[in-house]
């Protein structure tokens, strides 16, 4: 009586492909009777296809599917149509093995079936026309069984699934054998066609010559170079999209791509992948390495932008006609948990303009880079965090933990010791935004890696034998504390910020936030914080979803600049260039003139305008002037800006200084006559209001409405205490 065969792990089961077990009777992984029976049934049901029978099976499926027939009927009428084919459809279950084992063969059979069906339904077309139209049709393999990368696991082993991913790194291309022919050099009779295992990628063992009359009997056959067919294979590192990542920690897998798909792989691309989750043995290791074997990898469209409804667009366009109230709603809606004094309002407005962006023309950038710098605890980080909420393609980076290669492209060492390029958040957010907090803590040498992407929208990489250029049309919105943690009036702007002039000149907005001790603002800020802590809602603001849709919509507008607007920008830039600024101030160079154009264009977009008019330019110049004031820079001839000057307009300064003088006179009551304020402003600051007392009255009344002053009968007091 012979002993029962010893049960072992077969190679397929070792790779985690339990449903392709070669010998269920002796496989250790198939202990249960139920599993053995399922394996036997699957073997009995497996159907092998020739090229002709595979073509017939696909053709039959096309003819029975009205959606596919509609695409076939439109092939001749649509330029470069796209056919999305689902190889895992229930009606194509028998052909799934053919797709997984040889995607190229499957694609050829599909095109042949398309030609035959098209010729059958369009007999009036010549054979040459049919071939041309079908060849122009782009075939993309899709899958209804879509699973996020974070949800892939052992339960999906051997099952083809679809997912969205981003390419982080590429290894070098290699060659693998698809098929080969082994021949005997002696008798020439023993000829065997060898196939490659679709999972291990190994060629089946080369047999020996079985011709007993041959002089090379029982010797290994020799591979024929003529019949040795190879194809490209490439290992890539893929990462799940950031918007799908749990707790901001995306899952990363190694993936193997073969065939023509290798030609279309680039770092930073978003792809749609159909692959099989497998486990590969590791030498001298108990654990197995996870490897995704790609069956198809096609272009993956970036996330479809959230767009507003027609009713929302109509409502917002009506709101934008009253620019002041419209912008007030936007300012209140952005990070509503933060109290916004004048300087914070400027910072928020700069961020909103940056999120809208200008218009990219040829190689002229449209990105508006912004830098917020100033004392701690003024909400800079909170603003950046809210920025991430209202943008669909963005990333938050802490400068303390970042490096130049980490932000752009760096070398990553794989488990086997091999080093490959890996993309950072800047190229991965191409067309989006990167919020770079603690920007001043990034080493200066590392920040030089940002020069190219901030100006040209590309990142060039030449290192370790790799040479390529990535798109990085990414808007950088940074925040930094001064070098000494608080603004030092004894230092100039460059020394206070601690960033190089080359970085500062690339920033369209630089806003300095200063923690000033002001009883009125401090009281308002505390009241706002208590209100938020109580859970009270801010009324009359946009939700995060509405804000996102609004920004997505206005970005698509492409306004044209009028001649008057161009002249106004040119005149302001020329006058600004003539002014003598303090040493170490923010550079006033050619980049500033381009910044003025981008900011004006963004404001026109924000107001749903098809033209950039002088109104939008005036708004842009006002923002730029205020930003310059925060840095202690002059914007007009003869103007002197004191260090740490408060962030208010010139008119506000004039009225406020006069009110302070009157407040010092009345002392205890703090109330002073309304008419005295009007007369003092008219006497001391007439040039600010063109010598018109009515303008002063209108401006002061508006300041009272905004809560700058409290009115009691005919008297006023600063603030609302």
Give the low-pLDDT segments.
Answer: 1-24, 28-44, 640-649
How would you describe the oligomerization state of the chains in this entry? Answer: single chain
Number of helices: 25
* Rg estimate, integer Å: 34 Å
Number of strands: 24
Q: How much strand? A: 15-25%
Please bin the fraction of helical residues.
25-40%
What's the overall average pLDDT, rounded?
Answer: 80
Question: What's the CATH H-level superfamily name of the largest domain?
Answer: P-loop containing nucleotide triphosphate hydrolases
Secondary-structure map with pairings?
Elements: H1 11-14, H2 33-45, H3 51-63, H4 66-74, E1 82-85, H5 96-101, H6 103-121, H7 127-136, E2 138-141, E3 160-170, E4 174-183, E5 191-195, E6 222-223, E7 229-239, E8 252-258, E9 270-281, E10 288-299, H8 310-320, H9 323-333, H10 342-356, E11 370-374, H11 380-389, E12 394-398, H12 404-407, E13 409-413, E14 419-423, H13 425-428, E15 433-437, H14 444-447, H15 451-456, E16 458-463, E17 466-471, E18 475-480, H16 493-497, H17 501-504, E19 509-513, H18 519-533, H19 544-555, E20 560-561, H20 563-578, H21 590-606, E21 611-612, H22 614-630, H23 650-666, E22 672-673, H24 674-684, H25 693-705, E23 709-712, E24 715-718
Parallel strand pairs: 1-2, 8-10, 11-18, 11-19, 12-15, 15-18, 20-21
Antiparallel strand pairs: 3-7, 3-9, 4-5, 4-6, 4-7, 7-8, 9-10, 13-14, 16-17, 22-24, 23-24
Helix pairs in contact: 3-6, 6-7, 10-22, 20-21, 20-22, 21-22, 23-24, 24-25
